[in-house]
């Protein structure tokens, strides 16, 4: 039997509403608790909220590249977020940016389009 993901909290950050909806559907299909955001402002609001308990931040690589140091600083400064893993979502055209994202502190990356198998394995990143 697979790992129980019903207690795993994921902040999903994707500017493209259609893509966000597709990934949201995969995450909820695997029973993750998902908070989707579609803008940088919403992402920072979620990170700075009174109760920012997240296990995984699943973000478009473009968001991480544009705001990497700010995102990682927000995570490291908050005791409740220090355990949080940042996973980048990339397209085949963005693969060359993976090293930069990892340099900011991302734990891993997934290549889009995402599969149910990739989503089920997100749990390996929970610290």
TrEMBL record:
The keyword Transcription applies. Residues 9-127 form the Response regulatory domain. Gene3D superfamilies: 3.40.50.2300. One of its GO terms (biological process) is phosphorelay signal transduction system. Keywords: Transcription, Transcription regulation, Two-component regulatory system. It holds the Pfam family Response_reg. It comes from the Eukaryota. SMART domains: REC (SM00448). This is Response regulatory domain-containing protein.
